[in-house]
Design goal:
The complex is a heterodimer. Chain A is mostly helical. Chain A is built from eleven helices and no strands. Chain A has a single domain, classed as MetI-like (MetI-like fold), CATH 1.10.3720.10. Chain B has two domains: 193 residues, 3-Layer(aba) Sandwich (Rossmann fold), CATH 3.40.50.300; 65 residues, no CATH class. In chain B, helix 3 crosses helix 4. Chain B is globular and about 55 Å long. Classes of the chains: A mainly alpha, B alpha/beta. Chains A and B meet through helix 7, helix 8 and helix 11 of A and strand 6 and helix 3 of B. Bound molecules: adenosine-5'-triphosphate (ATP) and magnesium ion (MG).
Amino acid sequence: MTYIRTFLNIIALPLILLAIWFVSTLGETSFFVPTPQALVETFFETWTSERFVSDVFPSLGRLMIGIVLSILIGIGAGLLIGSFRWLRALLEPTLEFFRAIPPPVLIPVIMLLIGIGDEMKVSVIVLGAVWPILLNTIEGVRSMDEVLADTSRTYGMNKINSVRYLILPSAMPQIMAGIRQSLSIALILMVISEMFASTEGLGFAIVQFQRSFAIPEMWSGIVLLGLIGVILSFIFQLAERWILGWYHGLREIEQAA
Amino acid sequence: MTSEHSQPTNPVISQSGVQDTPDGRIPVGKTMPGEEPMLSVQNLKKVYHTDGGDIEAVRNLTFDLPKGQLACLVGPSGSGKTTLLKCISGLMAPTEGEVTLHGEKVTGPPKSMAVVFQEYGRSLFPWLRVAENVELPLKNQGMDKTARREVVAEALEAVGLSHVPKSYPWQLSGGMQQRVAIARAVAYKPEVLLMDEPFAAVDAQTRADLEDLVRGIWKKLGVSVLFVTHDIDESVYLGERVIILSSSPTVIQEDVLVDLPAERDQLETRSSQRFAELRHHVYEQIQLAKKGFRPEDAVANANA
Ligand SMILES: Nc1ncnc2c1ncn2[C@@H]1O[C@H](COP(=O)(O)OP(=O)(O)OP(=O)(O)O)[C@@H](O)[C@H]1O
Ligand SMILES: [Mg+2]
């Protein structure tokens, strides 16, 4: 029963929007706005398996590498910076400055420095996506519960075990919130990085379609991007539920009390 | 307690007031000549430096905890009990004076000490299950898996929690959570167990059970226990000795020997004549402490 309800909740709004779209494009002949039926047809015609191999998979590959690197660098550096007060005081203003720079404007610079290959595209993704994870990890480490830290100290917890069993899990709720933000940033930057000096990729394909006035194809690419975003957030939610199960349980009990 | 009551039939043995006990018993706080005290606090002073100025939490404390003793520390709220425990457990450096364990100066948390904090909800790892919480310090020590499992099961058994090893701490009641913290300390097999108002936040019935649990564990393991509480009844019921702290800045108000029988029973012990006398005496001292009466000779005596 609740599953059906959840399912209805999820698809209700998309259905309504589709209906509005359908009705408003009835008898419409505008070149720039395809009808739903035409778009669905185009979607399957455009995104064939060859296209997946030539454009979508390379994009997804760079996206994944970018996300994984952002997570590793963000958490690693965050643990380090968060653990030392002086390091934090030293670095935080500078980090805020770098965070404030929109990564797309760095693309020309990065192109000059490391060329136009995959490294450039991954770098752009990491340069944008690392910040929420890094800053959230620092904050998560900083807001460690004092009693819990004292407890660990009295039991003589060594450095590695402290990180593994105390610092990392205790910062995990904030880290996950950072990762969630980073995912959407990474997706955006994946597309943007492929709009410069590229020969393949989802962003490249969409720009190509637009330049050659293949408008329904262009729209279908945008739909595909949306779907990737949805799948990404779905995977994230599964992972979060698994990693932060304890946190949600604790929360529920605190709120009930 | 009413203000009118009979004088105690036996004099309460007080170490700071009376140096020689009338009936020839050895004052508990003092170690026998030639015997090393297990834990020794000497002229401990702690001043917090804050933006609002300095706060002298502990002025001058000196006492010994012999091996295997269960001593209770009572004092009014804010008298620096937690501060003292943090200094003893090496979590905080004293401003002056020192703490020694087996004659060695404590500079960081010693291996052979375990602490049970008042805030059980914040001292258990919420991301670890009950058994994992108990197991973690052992894992950290490098104990192998089979041995660990055995010790954890034993400790959970000892606190009556064998049935919930896979629960998360936050799924348990407050009293059960504190039992987990106690089990963790027990499994660690410390020589000294420090407890900071461990039962302040649990209900009366649970509290009585936990008190008996602590006495049971103390007898079984032979650990030295320093039990901090602001509950006078609890201190007399639990301890072999009650150290009364003055109000802040803290010195020792009095050091009282609890000469109740070793076998204690919530009903019988608490309704005994001697319990009432001791309780009365401690109560009086605490009231004095609250009023600001300071035993001017306490420091001198404790140092003597
Ligand atoms: N970190 C700190 N910084 C500054 N002052 C502190 C700090 N911790 C405690 N104090 C002060 O030191 C004094 C003693 O505090 P402490 O917590 O040791 O008392 P306590 O006896 O444990 O009290 P309670 O019975 O309420 O637990 C208090 O006046 C308190 O305000
Ligand atoms: Mg306290």
